[in-house]
Amino acid sequence: MLPIQVHLTLPPWLEEVADEKRRYHSDEERVALAIELSRRNIAQGTGGPFGAAVFDDQGRLIAAAANRVVPQSCSIAHAEILAYMAAQQRLSTHRLNEQGGRYTLATSSQPCCQCFGATVWAGVDELLIGARAEDVEELTEFDEGPLPADWIGELERRGIAVRRDILRDEARAVLAEYGQTGPKY
Amino acid sequence: MLPIQVHLTLPPWLEEVADEKRRYHSDEERVALAIELSRRNIAQGTGGPFGAAVFDDQGRLIAAAANRVVPQSCSIAHAEILAYMAAQQRLSTHRLNEQGGRYTLATSSQPCCQCFGATVWAGVDELLIGARAEDVEELTEFDEGPLPADWIGELERRGIAVRRDILRDEARAVLAEYGQTGPKY
């Protein structure tokens, strides 16, 4: 029978790491959560070394996610994609900032070509990034894929501010640990 | 409570259009199905004017999908993405051609920036396209987003053959109908 639905789960430990009652005010607190999601994901063997989270302009956590590509048999299930999906379904909108408000995605590593494209449509106003693409490619077997030459400019021209190198060393440390010891997710 | 799962449904009429018992041998038959999915999707009001399907090298239909962005509150839920997800979950693999075999995505319109990126990771060997990006932008309010300058070359260098303009007029006709009369999904 042809599939008529798709179901994806987030890791069962998610709420041990992501605290819905807390306010994540600074860029560093937000990326620190994304990095902690990436670290826990490899420690628990629930996916690849990537985490992401969506916040509103009060610092409230709307959704948190980690990479689930291999456990869920889904090449789409990158951390950023799952964070966007979960946040949009929670707020019942296909564009997070459609009704106003400002939304931020924090991610442990620079979005790949797929998550770059998803960021264009998701309705976020800001993208906060830990490790760079070259860190991912240096420290793991992952490829970031082909991006537009001026990918930051493309986002900024669409109203999405980009800030990089936030806790970059901490993000790199998780990638390095994964690259040395992890299962190859 | 933070979301711990994501659930997406395909349109309820899917199996009226997509025939799992049939073999879709030619490129034209495959894109014709994608276009018929796009047409039915706007006729039924179940999403935007885009359809896509995954086939194996025997012409068997693995998964069929249509755009579900607005009904499912999900900017990720483009037809191509849902076709990849459904096919991968059906075959229990995060990369369709990982165990061998050749897989094809047929889509009614050129993939946007998000679906271009997803195509890099999905494990397809071939991409068949009906309408061009400029048709989408001419005939509807949709934006295709920023792509690498040589997006076809980027795919082909990764082993993904690209063939365009298959039944382009038929694909354009659905876009034109949507642009003139459709709800703005």
Structural summary, described in words:
2 copies of one chain form a homodimer. Chain A is of the alpha/beta class. Chain A is 39% helix and 18% strand. Chain A is built from 7 helices and 6 strands, in the order βααββαβαβααβα. Chain A has a 5-stranded mixed beta sheet with strand order 3-2-4-5-6, sandwiched between helices. In chain A, strand 2 (51-56) and strand 3 (61-66) form a beta hairpin. The first copy, chain A, is globular. In chain A, 57% of the residues are buried. The model of chain A has no long low-confidence stretch (mean pLDDT 96). The interface between A and B is large, with 58 and 58 residues. Strand 1 (5-9) of chain A pairs antiparallel with strand 1 (5-9) of chain B.
Low-confidence stretches of chain A: none
Taking all residues together, what is the mean pLDDT of chain A? 96
Alpha-carbon Rg of chain A, integer: 15 Å
Number of DSSP helices of chain A?
7
Q: Which overall shape of chain A is indicated by the principal axes computed on the Cα atoms?
A: globular
Order of helices and strands of chain A: EHHEEHEHEHHEH
| Strand numbers in spatial order across the main sheet of chain A | 3-2-4-5-6
Helix amount of chain A, in percent?
25-40%
Of all chain pairs, the largest interface belongs to:
A-B, 58 and 58 residues
User: What portion of the residues of chain A fall into strands of 2 or more residues?
Assistant: 15-25%
Regarding quaternary structure, what we see is: homodimer
**Main sheet overview of chain A:** 5 strands, mixed
Helical/strand content category of chain A: alpha/beta
The strand count of chain A comes to 6
The CA-CA distance between the termini of chain A, in Å, is 29 Å
